[in-house]
Design brief:
The protein is 46% helix and 14% strand. It contains 26 helices and 19 strands. The protein folds into five domains: 209 residues, P-loop containing nucleotide triphosphate hydrolases (Rossmann fold, 3-Layer(aba) Sandwich); 127 residues, 3-Layer(aba) Sandwich (Rossmann fold); 102 residues, Arc Repressor Mutant, subunit A, CATH 1.10.10; 75 residues; 47 residues. With 639 residues, it is an alpha/beta fold. The strands form four sheets. A seven-stranded parallel sheet has the order 3-4-2-5-6-1-7, sandwiched between helices. It has a six-stranded parallel sheet with strand order 8-13-12-9-11-10, sandwiched between helices. A three-stranded antiparallel sheet has the order 14-19-15.
């Protein structure tokens, strides 16, 4: 096996690490300088040190492993649970002419083997993205030992901690694969981690010494508001009239995305909706329209936003309570990435808190019910005992939930428990775009074109439109090919299928239906192992996270920013002076009599048509200017 770790001296005579890192950044990304903390993290990895990087959403985590991997040479293994994000990053790397591939459950055996062969036999490959459950397969373990691994990056590293909100047992396998390349440094990355999770990540990944780089979670340009509001739709309209620019509205379920977007459109606001159940092309179209500013507001479930870096989002509104403060912090953090002022507003009523608690009762179903779910899944897909590993099936959650007489929330939680012990994987859509790879050489293809001239136009357009189609699976767009050929999309698909049947190419059409993958052969459900102690521990931690959400929305005497920062272990922050709690405190200091007098004068002048600037000028001789400003802001918040 080859070890490309920094210790082997193969870079001793090169320029210093910092210079090479900046040159790499400039060459591939076009930037002259790193963001705060990025360079420190990169240099730590280049020194061969295990490193944990805590960077908030939008902090540029991918640069922190992509740059040192390119500087070091060899192959960087990137472990990530987010299939869509993996595929997106692979596409972006390939667009920069950096060779990268991905392996995740649900891929065909031929796809997996082709990717492994590329990594093993093409020395130009720099990145292999791997989903955590693939680490447990014998095929991966055997081939991993032969790979020229130079570093390991662990994205969403909080998933390795049982203290965390998104624990995934397959992550525990990372410590085992580390033993194959003991000198190779590990870079763990996460956007959200409490102090206990920070310690646990380093312990689970077997860091040689503690080594944490943490950028403060404080976002000085982002103001947090919590509003107890019965009429959320009206309040939402007032928010959008006050804060110009683009925004995101987060809701809990798919149906509500469409309903809320329609309400906004009816009230003159350019809006669209987004959720994971939409056709991949439709999702992409909606996302691009919003990114370009053609759509002002995107109403979405939490499926929207991961990996999206739109800098000029001015507001993020939640009209349903999030399940955890970790999730809220990530979603709210998508506002104001350009460092300009932005707001994150959470609207709730007392019913929402009660509903959140009710939903929690479904999060940890009885283990016998989980076993029942597993048995029904196996039976409905005709999987016999001792068979089924890596089988993939279309999946209807509603149908299966009805079969075992469970509501959707409870059934989903049961699936996640099965997912967490590594027996199944559920994905909304493992293949978001169509993929092809030629199975014959260029010379053989040229000969085939002469023999079958009816396919010559399509093959020519493919070769002109996409690179790498001989060496790796490549995403294609049938509609784009149809436009360039002047034929229908259906005709393109039929020709691709014909070429597949003749073994000229491999063609995997896009999938927009949920899929279920059986990761292991079926066993008798009574032998499914759930550690009761761990189950109870996870339930207790989930209850604590639920209490933290309730505390956040109900606390009215601590700055919102301080509350969030304290949750993530930052206890020395100062009040922001801008959130609803801080503004209420400032109004209280004015005094009731003065507040009422200033308020009445502002309202009177406003009715006469005075602008805010004119009102401030006119009243500044009568009252202190800071008090006038505070009262004006207070009144504006409650319009």
């Amino acid at each position: 096996m080859r070890d490309f770790s920094f210790d082997d001296g193969n870079m001793e005579n090169s320029r210093n690490d910092a210079q090479r890192a900046r040159e790499t950044l400039k060459r591939y990304w076009g930037y002259d300088n790193f963001r705060p903390l990025q360079e420190d993290i990169i240099l730590s990895v280049l020194e061969g040190r295990d490193t944990l990087a805590l960077l908030p959403t939008g902090g540029g985590k991918s640069i922190c492993f992509q740059v040192p991997a390119l500087v070091k040479g060899g192959l960087c293994i990137v472990i990530s649970p987010l299939i869509a994000l993996m595929k997106d990053q692979v596409e972006h790397l390939r667009a920069r002419h950096i060779k990268a591939g991905a392996i995740y459950s649900g891929m065909r055996v031929s796809e997996i083997q082709a990717t492994i062969d590329n990594v093993l036999f093409d020395p130009e490959y720099r990145f292999l993205y791997v989903s955590p459950e693939r680490l447990q397969t014998e095929n991966f373990k055997v081939n991993f030992e032969r790979m020229p691994v130079s570093m390991i990056a662990v994205d969403e590293a909080h998933c390795i901690s049982q203290w965390g909100y998104d624990f995934r047992p397959p992550y525990l396998e990372i410590a085992q694969i580390r033993k194959i390349f003991p000198k190779v440094p590990v870079l763990a990355l996460t956007a959200t981690a409490t102090p206990e999770v920070v310690k646990d990540i380093q312990l689970r990944l077997e860091f040689k010494t503690e080594n944490v780089f943490q950028k403060s979670f404080k976002r000085s340009n982002l103001t947090y508001f919590v509003v107890n509001e019965e009429d959320k739709n009206s309040r939402m309209l007032r928010i959008m009239s006050r804060y110009p620019g683009s925004g995101i509205v987060y809701v809990r379920n798919r149906k509500k995305t469409a309903e809320t977007a329609e309400f906004l459109r009816q009230n003159g606001i350019s809006a669209d909706y987004y959720h994971a159940g939409l056709d991949p092309r439709e999702r992409d179209r909606k996302q691009q329209s919003w990114m370009k500013g053609e759509t002002r507001v995107m109403v979405s479930t939490n499926a929207f936003g991961m990996g999206i870096d739109k800098p000029d989002v001015r507001f993020v509104v939640h009209i349903d309570l999030p399940d955890t403060l970790e999730a809220y912090f990530q979603e709210a953090g998508r506002a104001g990435r350009d460092e300009q002022p932005a707001v994150a507003i959470l609207l709730y009523d007392n019913y929402d808190v009660a509903q959140l608690k009710r939903n929690f009762t479904f999060t940890f179903p009885e283990l016998d019910r989980v076993r029942e779910v597993y048995r029904e899944l196996c039976q409905s897909h005709r999987i016999e005992l001792g068979t089924g590993q890596n089988k993939v099936f279309p999946f209807s959650m509603e149908k299966h939930a009805r079969a075992v007489k469970m509501n959707a929330a409870q059934y989903f939680s049961a699936l996640m428990l099965l997912n967490n012990i590594g027996v199944i994987l559920v994905s909304e859509h493992l293949r978001e775009k169509s993929e092809i790879q030629f199975r014959i050489s260029g010379d053989q293809l040229l000969k085939y074109q002469k023999e079958k001239p009816e396919f010559e136009p399509l093959i020519t357009v493919i070769l002109r439109s996409y690179s790498g189609v001989f060496s790796q699976f490549t995403n294609i767009d049938e509609q784009l090919l149809a436009t360039r050929l002047g034929i229908t999309e259906e005709a393109v698909i039929e020709q691709l299928k014909a070429l597949r049947s003749e073994k000229i190419l491999s063609y995997q059409p896009q999938s927009n239906i949920p899929l279920i993958v059986f990761l292991k052969d079926r066993i008798d459900e009574k032998y499914l192992y759930f550690d009761k102690k761990i189950y109870d521990f996870r339930k207790e931690k989930a209850e604590e996270r639920l209490a933290a959400v309730e505390n956040y929305v109900k606390t009215d005497n601590v700055c919102r920013s301080q509350l969030l920062l304290q949750y993530f272990g930052e206890w020395n922050s100062t009040p922001c002076g801008e959130c609803d709690v801080c503004r209420r405190s400032q109004i209280n200091r004015i005094g009731n009599k003065s507040f009422e007098a200033i308020s009445n004068d502002i309202k009177s002048l406003k009715q006469k048509g005075y602008t805010p600037k004119q009102i401030l000028s006119k009243l500044s001789t009568k009252y202190e200017e800071p008090q006038i400003v505070e009262v004006m802001r207070w009144l504006a918040d409650r319009q």
